[in-house]
Amino acid sequence: MRPALPNTTSEKPTDNLRAMRFPSANQPEQDQELQDLYNAVVAKIEEAIHWYDVRKAHHKYRAVFFRGSAITLAGLASILPIAVSMFPLEWAPQRWVPVASIFAALGASCIALDRLYGFSSTWMRYLAYLLELQTRLEMLQFGWTRLALETRLVNSSKSEGLIASLNLLQNALSAVNQALKNETSEWVAHFTGALAEFEKSVTARREAAPMVLAVTPPSHGALKVQIAELDTLDNHRYELHLDEASQGEHTGATKAFTGLGPGQHLLRVTAKRKGNPVSSEDVVTITPGETTSVVLTLS
Question: Transmembrane stretches, by residue range (predicted)?
């Protein structure tokens, strides 16, 4: 009759697969000092595994935060110009367009911080070395058990078993130390390269900033509206409409608009003179970086 398998479906799985724990096997007439040495090597490997496991989780959360923030900000930077184009003109949607550039810059900063401190790359590197250390631990335990069983079967001398055990422990410890050294060297190389790349990028942007400001033309213009014969209007009041959107009632002889997109805009003014409605309209052309002036006479 086959033994029943343990029911693990109701148990919550761990975040990572754990290294297998082998039952301890001793050689015939084995000294306690040799067993203590084996336990010390196993403890060192387990300590390294625990260190990488904890640090891996920390870098994972930071990597997810910065990468997720970069994706979200990039999406907002793409959607915002489309969304503000549907806003009413009285909301001055042109003012919100530069916010898309801010979102894009913040997203790029998240990517730069992730690359500089290596959250994503370190997360992957720690995971790889964690698996390697777990493999080394299992190989050591299996080799130790196999050596003990072989010694019992062939009845080899105590000195032969001691030499084989010491070689096994030394090779395992050397392999673990070499793995830790390789991981540290990779971290130093990555951080040094990321820092040099970051400094190079900052220097290039600092040098290019004055040139960009000098050659970047303005993207918006202004409009100045003057109402002729204002004193003949009832209560000296009139209502302005720009592109069919009401700009409210005004009493001054002039009204200025800023942040207007380039192109043609329909301007219409309505008021009352001696109780009778009067109006005037015109098509004005807005040129980026310039102020367009128009004088309207209501009739």
Answer: 64-84, 96-117
Contact criterion met (CB below 8 Å) for 267 and 241? yes
Is the pTM higher than 0.70? Answer: no
pLDDT tens profile 249-290? 878 788 888 877 777 888 888 888 888 888 888 888 888 878
User: How many CA within 13 A on the CB side of residue 214?
Assistant: 5
Q: Which two tokens stand for residue 248?
A: 């409210």
Q: How far apart are CA 227 and CA 186, in angstroms?
A: 72
The answer to whether the beta carbons of residues 34 and 162 sit under 8 Å apart is yes
Query: Per-residue DSSP letters for 176-221?
Result: HHHHHHHHHHHHHHHHHHHHHHHHHHHHHHHHHHHHHHHH-----E
Domains and CATH numbers, the chain: 32-215 (1.20.1270), 221-296 (2.60.40)
Higher-confidence position of 152 and 272: 272
**Section 56-61 average pLDDT:** 89
What is the per-residue pLDDT across 183-196, written as a single tens digit (0 to 9) for each?
A: 888 888 887 887 78
CA-based torsion, 123, 126, 132, 136: positive or negative: negative
- In 3D space, the residue among 274, 275, 280, 276 whose CA is nearest the CA of residue 239 turns out to be 280
